[in-house]
Each structure stands twice: as structure tokens, then as C-alpha cells.
Amino acid sequence: MGAYLAKAGVSSVVFERELFPRPHVGESLVPSSTRVFKDLDFLPQMEEAKFPHKFGAVWTADDKQKVPYQLGWEGLAADCHADIRFDERDQPGVDKNYTYHVDRGKFDLMLLQHANKLGAAVYEGVRVSAVDFGPKEPVVRFTMGRNGKEMGVSARMVVDASGRNTFLGNQLKLKVQDTVFDQYAIHTWFNNYDRKVFSREDDHRDYIFIHFLPISNTWIWQIPITNTVTSLGVVTQKKNFAKSKSDREKFFWESVASRPRLGETLRKADRIRPFKDEGDYSYAMKQICGDRFVMVGDAGRFVDPIFSTGVSIALNSSRFAHKDILAALETNDFSRQSFATFESTLRVGTKNWYDFITVYYRLNVLFTYFINDPKYRLDVLKLLQGDVYDDAAPPVLQKMRTMVAEVEQNQTHPWHKMLGDLTSNAFRPEF
Ligand SMILES: Cc1cc2nc3c(=O)[nH]c(=O)nc-3n(C[C@H](O)[C@H](O)[C@H](O)COP(=O)(O)OP(=O)(O)OC[C@H]3O[C@@H](n4cnc5c(N)ncnc54)[C@H](O)[C@@H]3O)c2cc1C
């Protein structure tokens, strides 16, 4: 947002409580991020940084997870394996057939420096403690250092980009915890992990891999960070973790061992970072803008990382919101209504993600079935590319929902016993 506003000649101040670089989860991008990098003249830096290029994605499962597939629904691989390349579908405004996997320490620092270079004033180590909204301009209160004195500065408006800290959502009591998704993740980096252990093609080494584990609602990501370093993380329902009564590291290794080849391969690699866990991360906000404020990225909503969407949503929410902010500056009208286009666009996108993610968790096999069926493949790819903002009711999602309903109602359906334990009311998020 700082970079977008600076490019438009608007003066802005960025307060960041950490000193960058700092580690952060969320390392695999989707191609809709490229539009933002282009807008901000940031693509040359992305290339110079030599981040691994991400040409596509692969989903794998074990032989034990083989599913009945002679259902008259052609296209379903018996072992749930699926892979896709981004260049199978042309994406308007995106002229690269790949996106990136990033070390977030490096990437976030680069973006912050870029905003600064374009003209945004950036202050690191400054923690925002409150925003006073009154009849006039809001006052942002902040502290520097551990016991720093609180100070304040007024601004015409405030953008909350505080991530899962959800600063304004908490202050204004707008946050609603998601009762359907209660996921938990534990992740770390490994050196010399053989990324090709489940590859069926030579050029899949730098794809993202999602390995389904034979534990309900549980999967593991495999994300290239450098030529030799790979990020691996287990995502599960929090209740699975709590039930195991083991410490988090043991849980990670037990989960990985449920796919023996994966476990064995990982044991041969060297862990180079401490384990880190993330929890309680699914929520929405009753509103993502208001008089003199907007929320972008995770500050406004987060559902689940299964489709690597978070960074793209964060980047694109600033792409949409900055247009409304520029218009508000023109008219000097900073009321909630001025940000309505941003709010409705973002809600279309996040609702599509939500529906897609819900179908995935309700019936994993359906997802691979749709990818492998030429009738639906490109429609699913459009979502995976991050193009979710232009259609409030994508037909492919409707078709997926109908199929889930059929499987739910038909107890003799071979897929019935594969239904996950998310309920169908999850298809109707309130916000
Ligand atoms: C388990 C897991 C896996 C994920 N995997 C992926 C993935 O593969 N791909 C992907 O795209 N996304 C992924 N995500 C999501 C991704 O991490 C986020 O969506 C993304 O980082 C959001 O960016 P943001 O700028 O909104 O927030 P952040 O990147 O979190 O930035 C917010 C910043 O605000 C600062 N801040 C917070 N409070 C204050 C304050 N009071 N004052 C000053 N500064 C403050 C923080 O220090 C932080 O630097 C994953 C998320 C999880 C939980």
C-alpha cells in the first residue's frame, strides 16, 4: 500500500513493529501477485533476488489412500495424484508463466525498501498501540522500543495492514472467529531434502507439492526456498494436535511418518530452523472498511493456506483499496461509502476462496477429480492462479457444491465415507 500510494504521489507513513528481515510463514505465491509487482515496477527486483520460479503445483497421496474411481466420472486418478502448470491457461495482465516461492524475510524486506524508495516514509521498530477515531482526523498512537513513551500522529486516514494481529479488528470489535476451520500448522526448513521424491516429471522439482496425509483434514506443504532449502509444514485440525498429547515436534514427525516414503526422505535431510507453529488463524471481519479506515491482507480476513493465497490477497487488496483511497483524497470524502468498491471486490474474492477451500476439505477427492477432468481443469486453474475477483458465482464452484450435496445425500455413494467432517453450512459464510 505504501508503494501504491507513493507512486501516486500521496504521502504516507508505514509503521512496522519488527526490525526486518524477520521470518514469516506464507512462502509460496500464486500468479495474480504478478499484476501487483508489475504495477509497482517490482518485477526486476523479484528476478534479481533469484527466488525459485513456481511453474505449477502437484498434489500427492499414498497408495493406502486409493479411492474407488469407477464411478462413471472419468478423469479421476486412482491415487488422488494431480498436477497442473500455470501456462495451461492465459491470464489477462499476467505475462509470466510462473510465479515465485519466497523467503519471506528477504521478500518482505525488499517490498518495504521498495515502498521507501518510491517515497513512503517507513519506520521499523514502531508499534501502533491505538487509533483514536473522532469527529476529525484519526490519531495513530504508537511506541518505539520496549518501554517507549506513547506518541501520536494524525492522518487523513488509516490503513490496517497488521496481518493476523488484526489490530483494528480487535480494537473495533469487528473480528469473528471461524467456527468451521480450526486449523493448526507446524513448519520448518530443511536442507538437502529430496524434492523429487514424489515427482512424476523431471521439471516438477520447483513446483509446490501438497501431500495429502491419511489423517482427516491433514496435509503437508513442500515449498522450495532455495536450490537446496525446502520449507515443510503440516496443517491439521487443532483438535488432532491436542489429542495426540505429544509435543509439537513429535507431532510433526508422526504426521510425516504417516506417508512412510516422505518420512524416510525427510529423516535424511537436515533441519536448519526451529519448528514454528501457527494456530487459530481462521476469521472474518464484520466490515473491512469504515469511516477513515480500510483493512488489507490478513488484517481483514484469513481462512486457510491450502491454496497459497494469502500473499496474493494481501497484495491485491492493496491494489483495489488504493484506487478508492485516491478517489477519497480527490473528493475529501473518507466515509465508509468511499471504500465500497474495494469492500465488495474483496468480498467476492474471499468468498470464492472460502467456498473453494470448503469443498476441498469436505471432499478432497473431488478436488483432484475436477483438476483431472478436462471439462473443469481450466476453471479450477483460474481459481488456483488467483483470479477470483471478477465472478461472484463461478460455475465450477457451483458444480462442485452440487456434487458434494449428491455425495452427502447418497449414503451408498463410494465417496460418501470420504467426506470430511466439515458441515455443509460452511458454504454459507456470513461475511
Ligand atoms: C500455516 C500458514 C501457511 C501459509 N502459507 C502461505 C503460502 O504458502 N502462500 C501464501 O501466499 N500465504 C500463505 N499464508 C498466508 C500468509 O502468511 C499471509 O496471508 C500473508 O503474510 C499476509 O500478509 P499481510 O501483509 O496481510 O500480513 P503480514 O505479512 O503478517 O504483515 C503484517 C505486519 O504487520 C506488523 N504489525 C502487526 N501489528 C502491528 C502493530 N501493532 N504495529 C506495527 N506493526 C504491526 C507485523 O510485524 C507484520 O510485519 C500462510 C498462512 C499460514 C497461517
How does this structure look, described?
The structure is a single chain. It is built from 13 helices and 20 strands. It is of the alpha+beta class. The chain has a domain at 183-279: D-Amino Acid Oxidase, Chain A, domain 2, CATH 3.30.9. The strands form six sheets. Strands 3, 4, 12, 13, 14, 15, 16 and 17 form an eight-stranded mixed beta sheet that branches. Strand 19 and strand 20 (293-295) form a beta hairpin. Helix 7 (248-257) crosses helix 8 and helix 9 (310-331) packs antiparallel against helix 10. The protein is globular. The chain binds flavin-adenine dinucleotide (FAD). Flavin-adenine dinucleotide (FAD) binds at residues 15-18, 24-29, 127-128, 161-165, 167, 185, 233, 278, 281, 297-299, 302, 305, 308-312, 314.
Q: What is the structure about, briefly put?
A:
By secondary structure, this protein is an alpha+beta fold. The chain is built from 13 helices and 20 strands.
The CATH architecture name of the domain at 183-279 reads 2-Layer Sandwich
Q: Estimate the mean pLDDT confidence.
A: 91
Largest sheet: 8 strands, mixed
The proportion of residues forming helix, as a percent range, comes to 25-40%
Please tell me what the overall shape is: globular
> For the CA atoms, what is the radius of gyration?
22 Å
Distance between the termini: 23 Å
Helix/strand class: alpha+beta
The total beta strand count reads 20
- Say what the CATH topology of the domain at 183-279 is: D-Amino Acid Oxidase, Chain A, domain 2
The low-pLDDT segments are 68-78
CATH class label of the domain at 183-279: Alpha Beta
Number of helices: 13
Q: Tell me the strand percentage band.
A: 15-25%
Q: Hetero groups bound?
A: flavin-adenine dinucleotide
The oligomeric state of the chains shown is single chain
